From TrEMBL:
Catalysed reaction equations from the record: XMP + L-glutamine + ATP + H2O = GMP + L-glutamate + AMP + diphosphate + 2 H(+)
Organism expressing this protein natively: Coprothermobacter proteolyticus (strain ATCC 35245 / DSM 5265 / OCM 4 / BT)
A GO CC term assigned to this protein in UniProt: cytosol
Coiled-coil segments on the chain, per record: none
Assembly and oligomerization: Homodimer.
Keywords: ATP-binding, Glutamine amidotransferase, GMP biosynthesis, Ligase, Nucleotide-binding, Purine biosynthesis, Transferase
Entry EC no(s): 6.3.5.2
Protein name (Swiss-Prot/TrEMBL): GMP synthase [glutamine-hydrolyzing]
Gene that produces this protein: guaA
Domain (GMPS ATP-PPase) ranges: 2-192
Residues annotated for ATP binding in this entry: 30-36
Top-rank EC class of the record's enzyme: ligase
């Protein structure tokens, strides 16, 4: 498609122009589509020697994120360092229940860990970020009030003295996916649903504990598998479980079972600015609930979120 070819060449030209002859770029990979497309594009523009990627394992990501990042890097020849910071994030979040406080703690610690690692990796001039057009709008530039503090925009470059490289700044998600396709990123990676920077911490209502994160990770994998089996994964903008922090009585076998209530959120959207709750067929909801309850012993009940955005937001926190 000539359109995307043109767009890619233009983006590559712009990266080269911005970074100059000798500029060094540090890229943060998150496990998601945007940061990966940004990295592959930059790799195309500058070659291997001038782009170093960093993946910080916060312990708040989906079960498959790290493997995806490693595979993709190998497949496309990206230079990547993986940092295990799980303990630090869990410790910093201990006892915190306020959503904005969670977001701030995670954002700040992310910057701190990132800075430490960046200094060890050498000298850089630019920080590469996979910021999209809707991120720019929702994070306050041009909008009257900030609803949630997103941790992927701002912060990092100032403290590291780096200039910002944001080659996807004018694009919407579907355009980024098209670009990724053109760049040879595998389809199953490109169609992954968006995932928030603060990760599972903002899908765990109340205090964040490893025990709860573990339930969420398993639930996420079960939900994703069912949606793929039923062929609806690609129709959804996002689909994820929320750990409600509420317990409820159920029956398992013949016995009383006092377990956790898991909420399932599935939405359709084009840019996340607005979203409709997914009018799932009852048979699908049934399969989701029974799979979750039978495969995750800690769960006793599954509820479905039928709030659109607005008035709800997509994430619960
Ligand atoms: P909300 O919950 O504000 O989410 O309706 C809109 C979209 O943004 C994602 N989201 C984030 N993405 N950093 C991100 O990179 C964040 O801090 C963050 N918070 C929410 C959310 O998953 C949805 O797609």
């Amino acid at each position: 498609n000539w359109n995307i070819t043109d767009y890619v060449s233009e983006a590559i030209r712009e990266i080269r122009e911005t970074v100059g002859e000798n500029g060094m770029v540090l890229g943060a990979l998150s496990g998601g589509v945007d940061s990966a497309v940004a990295a592959v594009l930059t790799h195309r523009a500058l070659g291997c020697g001038r782009l170093q990627c960093l993946y910080i394992d916060t312990g708040l990501q989906r079960a498959e994120d790290e493997a995806h990042v490693r595979n993709l890097s190998k497949h496309l020849g990206l230079k990547i360092k993986v940092v295990d910071a799980k303990e630090r994030f869990l410790k910093a979040l201990e006892g915190v229940i306020d959503p904005e406080q969670k977001r701030k703690i995670i954002g700040n610690l992310f910057i701190q860990v990132f800075e430490e690692e960046a200094r060890n990796l050498g000298h850089f001039d630019f920080l590469l970020q996979g910021t999209l057009y809707p991120d720019v709008i929702e994070s306050g530039e041009g909008s009257a009030s900030v609803i949630k503090s997103h941790h992927n925009v701002g912060g990092l470059p100032q403290s590291l003295g780096l200039k910002l490289l944001e080659p996807l700044r004018w694009l919407y998600k579907d355009e980024v996916r098209n670009m990724g396709r053109w760049l040879g990123i595998p389809e199953d990676f490109l169609m992954r649903h968006p995932f928030p920077g603060p990760g599972l911490a903002v899908r765990t209502i109340g205090p964040v504990k490893e025990e709860y994160l573990d339930i969420l990770r398993r639930a996420h994998s079960v939900l994703e598998r069912v949606l793929k089996e039923e062929g609806v994964y690609n129709e959804l903008w996002q689909a994820f479980p929320v750990f409600t922090g509420v317990k409820s009585v159920g029956v398992k076998g013949d016995a009383r079972h006092y377990g956790w209530v898991l909420a399932v959120r599935m939405v359709q959207s084009v840019d996340a600015m607005t979203a409709d709750w997914y009018k799932a067929p009852p048979e699908l909801l049934d399969k989701i609930a029974s799979s979750l309850i039978s495969e995750i012993p800690e769960i006793s009940r599954v509820v479905y979120d039928i709030t659109s955005k607005p008035p709800g937001t997509i994430e619960w926190e």
